[in-house]
Amino acid sequence: MDDDRRAFLDDLLATATPSGFETAGQRVWLDYVETFADEVRTDDYGNAIAVYEGDGDLDVLLGGHGDEIGLMVRDVTDDGHLKLTRVGGADRTVTRGQYVTVHGRDGPVPGVVGQVAIHLRDPADDDHSDITEMHVDIGAADEEEARDLVEVGDPITFDTEVQDLAGSLVAARGMDNRTGIWAAAEGLRRAAERDASATVYAVSTVQEEVGRQGAKMVGFDLHPDVALATDVTHATDTPEAPSTKGSSVELGSGPVVGRGSSNHPVVVEAVRAVARGEDIGVQLSADGITTGTDADVFYTSRSGVPTLNISLPNRYMHTPVEVIDTDDLDEVAELMGAFAARADEFAPFHVEV
What we know:
The protein has two domains: 3-68 and 173-345, 3-Layer(aba) Sandwich (Aminopeptidase), CATH 3.40.630; 70-158, Elongation Factor Tu (Ef-tu), domain 3. The strands form three sheets. An eight-stranded mixed β-sheet has the order 1-2-12-3-13-16-14-15, sandwiched between helices. It has a six-stranded antiparallel β-barrel with strand order 4-5-8-7-6-9. Strands 10-11-17 form a three-stranded antiparallel β-sheet. Helix content is 26%, strand content 26%. The chain is built from eight helices and 17 strands. The protein is of the alpha+beta class. It is globular.
Protein backbone atom coordinates (compact mmCIF):
# COMPACT_ATOMS: atom_id res chain seq x y z
CA MET A 1 0.00 0.00 0.00
CA ASP A 2 1.53 3.30 -1.06
CA ASP A 3 1.86 6.32 1.22
CA ASP A 4 -1.17 8.22 -0.10
CA ARG A 5 -3.48 5.23 0.29
CA ARG A 6 -2.12 4.49 3.76
CA ALA A 7 -2.61 8.11 4.79
CA PHE A 8 -6.26 7.88 3.72
CA LEU A 9 -6.73 4.69 5.75
CA ASP A 10 -5.08 6.27 8.80
CA ASP A 11 -7.27 9.36 8.50
CA LEU A 12 -10.40 7.20 8.44
CA LEU A 13 -9.26 5.15 11.43
CA ALA A 14 -8.36 8.25 13.43
CA THR A 15 -11.85 9.74 13.00
CA ALA A 16 -14.62 8.70 15.38
CA THR A 17 -17.80 7.54 13.61
CA PRO A 18 -20.16 5.80 16.05
CA SER A 19 -23.50 4.87 14.50
CA GLY A 20 -25.70 7.94 14.20
CA PHE A 21 -22.68 10.26 14.48
CA GLU A 22 -20.77 9.53 11.29
CA THR A 23 -20.46 13.06 9.90
CA ALA A 24 -16.73 13.63 10.52
CA GLY A 25 -15.76 10.32 8.94
CA GLN A 26 -18.03 10.86 5.96
CA ARG A 27 -16.30 14.20 5.39
CA VAL A 28 -12.88 12.49 5.35
CA TRP A 29 -14.20 9.98 2.81
CA LEU A 30 -15.77 12.63 0.58
CA ASP A 31 -12.64 14.78 0.60
CA TYR A 32 -10.73 11.80 -0.77
CA VAL A 33 -13.16 10.59 -3.44
CA GLU A 34 -14.04 14.02 -4.82
CA THR A 35 -10.54 14.29 -6.31
CA PHE A 36 -11.37 11.60 -8.89
CA ALA A 37 -15.18 11.13 -8.87
CA ASP A 38 -17.42 12.86 -11.41
CA GLU A 39 -19.95 13.64 -8.68
CA VAL A 40 -20.23 13.37 -4.91
CA ARG A 41 -23.34 13.82 -2.79
CA THR A 42 -24.98 12.94 0.50
CA ASP A 43 -28.55 12.22 1.51
CA ASP A 44 -30.56 13.45 4.47
CA TYR A 45 -29.02 10.93 6.90
CA GLY A 46 -25.45 11.39 5.69
CA ASN A 47 -24.98 8.40 3.40
CA ALA A 48 -22.15 9.44 1.09
CA ILE A 49 -22.13 8.62 -2.62
CA ALA A 50 -19.40 9.11 -5.22
CA VAL A 51 -20.10 8.54 -8.92
CA TYR A 52 -17.96 7.65 -11.91
CA GLU A 53 -20.01 8.24 -15.05
CA GLY A 54 -19.46 5.47 -17.59
CA ASP A 55 -20.82 5.51 -21.11
CA GLY A 56 -22.57 2.13 -20.87
CA ASP A 57 -25.94 1.00 -19.59
CA LEU A 58 -24.80 -0.90 -16.48
CA ASP A 59 -24.83 0.56 -12.94
CA VAL A 60 -22.45 -1.01 -10.41
CA LEU A 61 -22.47 -0.26 -6.67
CA LEU A 62 -19.38 -0.69 -4.48
CA GLY A 63 -20.32 -0.20 -0.83
CA GLY A 64 -19.03 -0.24 2.71
CA HIS A 65 -20.40 1.17 5.95
CA GLY A 66 -18.76 4.16 7.59
CA ASP A 67 -20.02 3.72 11.15
CA GLU A 68 -18.43 1.93 14.09
CA ILE A 69 -19.64 0.52 17.38
CA GLY A 70 -19.30 2.59 20.53
CA LEU A 71 -20.92 3.72 23.75
CA MET A 72 -23.22 6.57 24.73
CA VAL A 73 -23.91 8.66 27.81
CA ARG A 74 -27.13 7.30 29.30
CA ASP A 75 -27.18 9.38 32.48
CA VAL A 76 -25.02 11.45 34.83
CA THR A 77 -24.77 10.51 38.51
CA ASP A 78 -24.77 12.85 41.47
CA ASP A 79 -21.03 12.37 41.87
CA GLY A 80 -20.28 13.22 38.24
CA HIS A 81 -19.83 9.79 36.71
CA LEU A 82 -21.38 8.87 33.36
CA LYS A 83 -23.69 5.87 33.05
CA LEU A 84 -23.53 4.03 29.74
CA THR A 85 -25.49 2.34 27.01
CA ARG A 86 -24.31 0.59 23.86
CA VAL A 87 -24.08 1.89 20.31
CA GLY A 88 -24.22 -1.27 18.24
CA GLY A 89 -22.58 -4.50 19.35
CA ALA A 90 -20.10 -3.19 21.91
CA ASP A 91 -18.31 -6.00 23.78
CA ARG A 92 -18.62 -5.80 27.56
CA THR A 93 -15.60 -8.09 28.07
CA VAL A 94 -13.15 -5.52 26.69
CA THR A 95 -14.79 -2.30 27.87
CA ARG A 96 -13.59 -1.84 31.45
CA GLY A 97 -10.23 -0.20 32.10
CA GLN A 98 -10.10 1.61 28.74
CA TYR A 99 -9.32 5.20 27.84
CA VAL A 100 -12.28 6.77 26.05
CA THR A 101 -13.31 10.02 24.43
CA VAL A 102 -16.75 11.52 25.00
CA HIS A 103 -17.69 13.52 21.92
CA GLY A 104 -19.37 16.47 23.61
CA ARG A 105 -21.06 19.51 22.16
CA ASP A 106 -18.00 21.71 22.80
CA GLY A 107 -15.39 19.16 21.77
CA PRO A 108 -13.82 15.92 22.95
CA VAL A 109 -13.82 15.10 26.65
CA PRO A 110 -11.28 12.49 27.84
CA GLY A 111 -12.30 9.81 30.30
CA VAL A 112 -11.76 6.25 31.46
CA VAL A 113 -14.12 3.34 31.93
CA GLY A 114 -13.84 2.54 35.63
CA GLN A 115 -12.69 -0.84 36.87
CA VAL A 116 -12.50 -1.87 40.52
CA ALA A 117 -8.93 -2.91 41.33
CA ILE A 118 -8.25 -6.64 41.42
CA HIS A 119 -7.26 -6.31 45.10
CA LEU A 120 -10.76 -5.14 46.01
CA ARG A 121 -12.84 -7.55 43.90
CA ASP A 122 -14.32 -10.76 45.20
CA PRO A 123 -12.82 -13.54 43.01
CA ALA A 124 -16.04 -15.52 43.31
CA ASP A 125 -17.94 -12.57 41.88
CA ASP A 126 -15.57 -11.78 39.00
CA ASP A 127 -18.00 -11.99 36.08
CA HIS A 128 -18.18 -9.44 33.29
CA SER A 129 -20.75 -6.79 34.11
CA ASP A 130 -23.14 -5.52 31.49
CA ILE A 131 -22.19 -2.20 29.92
CA THR A 132 -25.24 -0.57 31.51
CA GLU A 133 -23.62 -1.28 34.91
CA MET A 134 -20.34 0.41 33.99
CA HIS A 135 -19.39 4.06 34.23
CA VAL A 136 -17.03 6.57 32.69
CA ASP A 137 -14.95 8.81 34.95
CA ILE A 138 -14.13 12.18 33.34
CA GLY A 139 -12.72 13.63 36.55
CA ALA A 140 -15.77 15.76 37.36
CA ALA A 141 -16.35 16.53 41.05
CA ASP A 142 -20.14 16.34 40.80
CA GLU A 143 -23.11 16.20 38.45
CA GLU A 144 -23.10 19.92 37.74
CA GLU A 145 -19.46 19.92 36.66
CA ALA A 146 -20.01 16.84 34.49
CA ARG A 147 -23.07 18.33 32.79
CA ASP A 148 -21.04 21.41 31.90
CA LEU A 149 -18.93 19.10 29.73
CA VAL A 150 -21.28 16.39 28.47
CA GLU A 151 -24.95 15.61 28.11
CA VAL A 152 -27.15 12.56 27.74
CA GLY A 153 -26.83 11.10 24.24
CA ASP A 154 -23.21 12.10 23.65
CA PRO A 155 -21.38 9.26 21.85
CA ILE A 156 -18.24 7.68 23.28
CA THR A 157 -15.41 5.83 21.53
CA PHE A 158 -12.31 4.06 22.77
CA ASP A 159 -9.22 6.26 22.67
CA THR A 160 -6.73 4.19 20.67
CA GLU A 161 -4.06 4.74 18.02
CA VAL A 162 -3.29 2.91 14.80
CA GLN A 163 -0.47 0.47 15.49
CA ASP A 164 1.73 -1.25 12.91
CA LEU A 165 2.51 -4.86 13.75
CA ALA A 166 4.99 -7.18 12.02
CA GLY A 167 4.95 -7.30 8.22
CA SER A 168 1.84 -5.77 6.66
CA LEU A 169 -0.44 -6.25 9.69
CA VAL A 170 -2.08 -3.23 11.33
CA ALA A 171 -4.14 -2.94 14.53
CA ALA A 172 -6.74 -0.29 15.32
CA ARG A 173 -10.23 0.38 16.61
CA GLY A 174 -12.89 0.44 13.92
CA MET A 175 -11.33 -1.61 11.14
CA ASP A 176 -15.00 -2.64 11.03
CA ASN A 177 -15.68 -0.98 8.74
CA ARG A 178 -13.46 1.93 7.79
CA THR A 179 -11.56 -0.66 5.75
CA GLY A 180 -14.76 -1.26 3.76
CA ILE A 181 -15.26 2.36 2.81
CA TRP A 182 -11.54 2.62 2.00
CA ALA A 183 -11.97 -0.31 -0.40
CA ALA A 184 -15.14 1.14 -1.94
CA ALA A 185 -13.39 4.46 -2.61
CA GLU A 186 -10.30 2.75 -3.98
CA GLY A 187 -12.43 0.39 -6.07
CA LEU A 188 -14.07 3.41 -7.68
CA ARG A 189 -10.70 5.06 -8.37
CA ARG A 190 -9.30 1.91 -9.92
CA ALA A 191 -12.41 1.31 -12.03
CA ALA A 192 -12.09 4.87 -13.36
CA GLU A 193 -8.41 4.27 -14.17
CA ARG A 194 -9.49 1.24 -16.22
CA ASP A 195 -12.03 3.39 -18.13
CA ALA A 196 -14.97 1.28 -17.00
CA SER A 197 -17.95 1.45 -19.33
CA ALA A 198 -20.34 0.98 -16.41
CA THR A 199 -21.43 3.84 -14.19
CA VAL A 200 -19.90 3.04 -10.83
CA TYR A 201 -21.21 4.22 -7.48
CA ALA A 202 -19.02 4.06 -4.39
CA VAL A 203 -21.01 4.46 -1.19
CA SER A 204 -20.24 4.90 2.47
CA THR A 205 -23.39 4.01 4.36
CA VAL A 206 -24.43 5.03 7.86
CA GLN A 207 -25.88 3.04 10.76
CA GLU A 208 -24.98 -0.48 9.63
CA GLU A 209 -24.12 -1.46 13.18
CA VAL A 210 -27.66 -0.69 14.35
CA GLY A 211 -29.59 -2.57 11.69
CA ARG A 212 -28.07 -1.75 8.26
CA GLN A 213 -30.28 1.31 8.05
CA GLY A 214 -28.22 3.41 5.65
CA ALA A 215 -27.98 0.61 3.11
CA LYS A 216 -31.79 0.43 3.01
CA MET A 217 -31.87 4.06 1.95
CA VAL A 218 -29.03 3.80 -0.58
CA GLY A 219 -30.25 0.57 -2.15
CA PHE A 220 -33.68 2.08 -2.76
CA ASP A 221 -32.25 5.35 -4.05
CA LEU A 222 -29.72 3.94 -6.52
CA HIS A 223 -31.24 0.58 -7.49
CA PRO A 224 -28.08 -0.63 -9.30
CA ASP A 225 -27.81 -3.59 -11.65
CA VAL A 226 -25.27 -5.30 -9.39
CA ALA A 227 -23.77 -4.52 -5.97
CA LEU A 228 -20.61 -5.53 -4.14
CA ALA A 229 -20.77 -4.89 -0.40
CA THR A 230 -17.51 -5.10 1.49
CA ASP A 231 -17.13 -5.59 5.22
CA VAL A 232 -14.87 -7.47 7.60
CA THR A 233 -15.22 -11.14 8.46
CA HIS A 234 -13.77 -13.24 11.24
CA ALA A 235 -10.23 -14.47 10.70
CA THR A 236 -10.07 -17.85 12.41
CA ASP A 237 -6.28 -18.19 12.43
CA THR A 238 -5.72 -17.42 16.13
CA PRO A 239 -5.33 -19.93 18.99
CA GLU A 240 -8.66 -19.18 20.67
CA ALA A 241 -10.82 -18.98 17.53
CA PRO A 242 -13.51 -21.71 17.71
CA SER A 243 -13.29 -24.23 14.88
CA THR A 244 -17.06 -24.77 14.91
CA LYS A 245 -17.95 -21.18 14.01
CA GLY A 246 -17.16 -19.57 10.68
CA SER A 247 -15.15 -20.80 7.72
CA SER A 248 -11.37 -21.21 7.71
CA VAL A 249 -10.17 -17.67 6.99
CA GLU A 250 -6.60 -16.43 7.34
CA LEU A 251 -4.95 -13.05 7.29
CA GLY A 252 -2.70 -12.70 4.27
CA SER A 253 -4.64 -15.16 2.09
CA GLY A 254 -6.73 -12.58 0.26
CA PRO A 255 -10.33 -11.37 0.02
CA VAL A 256 -13.18 -13.60 1.16
CA VAL A 257 -16.02 -14.31 -1.28
CA GLY A 258 -19.29 -15.27 0.37
CA ARG A 259 -21.50 -18.08 -0.89
CA GLY A 260 -25.15 -18.64 -0.04
CA SER A 261 -28.01 -16.44 1.25
CA SER A 262 -27.74 -12.93 -0.20
CA ASN A 263 -24.71 -13.77 -2.35
CA HIS A 264 -26.01 -14.05 -5.92
CA PRO A 265 -24.51 -17.18 -7.54
CA VAL A 266 -23.90 -15.52 -10.91
CA VAL A 267 -22.09 -12.61 -9.25
CA VAL A 268 -20.09 -15.06 -7.12
CA GLU A 269 -18.80 -16.83 -10.22
CA ALA A 270 -18.17 -13.57 -12.06
CA VAL A 271 -16.05 -12.18 -9.22
CA ARG A 272 -14.14 -15.45 -8.92
CA ALA A 273 -13.44 -15.33 -12.65
CA VAL A 274 -12.19 -11.75 -12.37
CA ALA A 275 -9.99 -12.77 -9.43
CA ARG A 276 -8.42 -15.54 -11.49
CA GLY A 277 -7.83 -13.15 -14.37
CA GLU A 278 -6.19 -10.61 -12.06
CA ASP A 279 -4.17 -13.27 -10.22
CA ILE A 280 -5.87 -12.43 -6.92
CA GLY A 281 -6.21 -15.34 -4.54
CA VAL A 282 -9.58 -15.50 -2.79
CA GLN A 283 -10.95 -17.41 0.17
CA LEU A 284 -14.53 -18.66 0.46
CA SER A 285 -17.02 -18.36 3.29
CA ALA A 286 -20.27 -20.22 3.90
CA ASP A 287 -23.14 -17.77 4.49
CA GLY A 288 -25.97 -20.23 4.89
CA ILE A 289 -28.49 -17.86 6.48
CA THR A 290 -27.21 -14.29 6.40
CA THR A 291 -24.00 -12.32 5.86
CA GLY A 292 -24.73 -9.83 8.65
CA THR A 293 -23.66 -7.01 6.32
CA ASP A 294 -25.15 -4.35 4.07
CA ALA A 295 -25.41 -7.05 1.39
CA ASP A 296 -28.44 -8.41 3.23
CA VAL A 297 -30.46 -5.29 2.48
CA PHE A 298 -28.98 -4.34 -0.89
CA TYR A 299 -30.13 -7.63 -2.38
CA THR A 300 -33.77 -7.20 -1.34
CA SER A 301 -34.00 -3.53 -2.32
CA ARG A 302 -36.95 -2.75 -4.58
CA SER A 303 -37.40 -5.77 -6.88
CA GLY A 304 -34.02 -7.23 -5.91
CA VAL A 305 -30.38 -6.42 -6.69
CA PRO A 306 -27.83 -9.15 -7.56
CA THR A 307 -25.38 -8.71 -4.70
CA LEU A 308 -22.17 -10.20 -3.32
CA ASN A 309 -20.46 -9.71 0.01
CA ILE A 310 -16.67 -9.48 -0.31
CA SER A 311 -15.00 -9.59 3.08
CA LEU A 312 -11.70 -8.59 4.60
CA PRO A 313 -10.22 -11.03 7.14
CA ASN A 314 -10.18 -9.39 10.56
CA ARG A 315 -8.95 -10.63 13.93
CA TYR A 316 -10.58 -9.59 17.22
CA MET A 317 -13.70 -7.97 15.72
CA HIS A 318 -15.55 -5.43 17.90
CA THR A 319 -12.56 -4.87 20.17
CA PRO A 320 -10.24 -1.83 20.34
CA VAL A 321 -7.46 -3.92 18.72
CA GLU A 322 -8.88 -5.25 15.46
CA VAL A 323 -6.09 -6.58 13.22
CA ILE A 324 -6.05 -6.73 9.42
CA ASP A 325 -3.45 -7.30 6.70
CA THR A 326 -3.10 -4.26 4.43
CA ASP A 327 -2.11 -6.56 1.55
CA ASP A 328 -5.53 -8.24 1.87
CA LEU A 329 -7.20 -4.84 1.94
CA ASP A 330 -5.41 -3.67 -1.18
CA GLU A 331 -6.53 -6.83 -2.98
CA VAL A 332 -10.16 -6.28 -1.93
CA ALA A 333 -10.03 -2.85 -3.59
CA GLU A 334 -8.27 -4.23 -6.66
CA LEU A 335 -10.86 -6.99 -7.04
CA MET A 336 -13.76 -4.55 -6.68
CA GLY A 337 -12.28 -2.13 -9.19
CA ALA A 338 -11.50 -4.87 -11.69
CA PHE A 339 -14.99 -6.31 -11.40
CA ALA A 340 -16.60 -2.92 -11.90
CA ALA A 341 -14.48 -2.39 -15.02
CA ARG A 342 -15.42 -5.81 -16.45
CA ALA A 343 -18.99 -6.17 -15.16
CA ASP A 344 -20.53 -5.83 -18.61
CA GLU A 345 -18.75 -9.07 -19.62
CA PHE A 346 -20.92 -11.01 -17.17
CA ALA A 347 -24.24 -9.15 -17.35
CA PRO A 348 -27.12 -9.73 -17.10
CA PHE A 349 -26.86 -11.16 -13.60
CA HIS A 350 -29.78 -13.51 -13.79
CA VAL A 351 -30.31 -17.01 -12.39
CA GLU A 352 -31.42 -19.45 -15.08
CA VAL A 353 -34.29 -21.61 -13.82
